[in-house]
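Let us practice reading a record.
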Amino acid sequence: MKNTASALRTFGGLITSRLSEGLKDNNSDASSDLDSSIKFKPTKSGDIDGIGVTMLDYYLELDEGVKPKGKQPSYTVQSSDIAEWLTYPNVKQKMEQRGFKVTERSIPSLAINIANRLTEDGRDGTNFFTNVINSKLVTRDLPKMLEPAIGADLEDLLFEGIE
């Protein structure tokens, strides 16, 4: 099954690359933590080869968005995460382009205001993950990559020891 495993590794590399591109295209990873967490790992269950893609858990909220909750956020958790996010240079620059002065003193109140806004209004998803999973890379190219690899592995298996 070496050919199938090789094709799956190639496919896993393409998937992680496309996911990373999707984050960059949506300008959705200010810290680069999510991007650097995207990993693929060949898997094996019995005789079945596959791939697993892992990344930080919050990818789903980024992909699908967050529905409005209409209740007060947990300031200690949510606003502290937002406060950290506001310190990233690219976020700070965007906020200042929108007319917000981002200073050490203004960050706590900005974080609380953003947390309130997210709770009240929610946030649209970026579909960075969904777009890749529903892309032609998966629906068309994966079968084209796997078919000859599986065929070669079957041929190797059938003719093993016959020479």
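A brief commentary: Strands lie at 39-45, 48-54, 65-66, 123-124.
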